Amino acid sequence: MKTILFTSFLLLSFQNLFSQSADEIWSGVLKHYRNISNYVDEGILINYFPGNPPISTMDSFYIAMDSHKNVDHWIYRSTGHQGYQYNKTSSQEEGTLTRLFEIKETVPRSLDMAAASLYAVGGGILDMTACLMHPNFYGDTKIHPGPAIAYDTLIRLQDTTISNVKYYQLELIHSIYLSEEKIRYQKHVLDSIHTVQNITVSEESDQQEKPGTRTIITKYFVSTKDGLIHRREQLNISGGTNGMKTILTMNPKSDVPDFKIYLEKKHE
Fold it and tell me: What pTM was computed for the model?
């Protein structure tokens, strides 16, 4: 009798796992991220820029953030220690955003402005992490450039298994109308970061963002083992034409013990 009851329990649990809707899974993901004390991640970002010829870049990244908005983040080009850094403590209203290319430049930036500034050139990693961990991260401001958690349509795709770990696949589709005013504002934010692969951000924006509807399709791979996102694929579509595509492979950890000591050791 006990064996029958136990088998029935396993079958019920199995059925519940696969009967969850996309909304239920996504709500669980957001709840999980907002309950963790801290988050640490390192991985690879691949960017594909359309054009003639198309351009692709591969960057390595690291990010650490806690529930108090202590942040340590960098993203480096594969060609060497060229890229961007952002550091902020909870006691600071503004952290420091540093551009590491031929000339090292550092400017003060609040967390939301840094996330907006790095959205195009940094793959939206800071934006995504902050939005997942902190509800209403941008509040009512107009600077939010991307749909880290926003969607018009949410679809649960077929689950997949990678290295013996099962992953949910969720696809978020979000469309926004870009007015000339909003494009000018985003360029103003992005221009402070200057260049990507010798193309100014303004020039790149001119190629990819004209007034009209922009659709962003984001696919998240969520581990059923730890509840964290381990991969993100994102495609931008403007005027019916595919634009920039990014693939983010991640190695996330949450609730790292002695987080401040961890950050100190990371900089030794």
Answer: 0.80
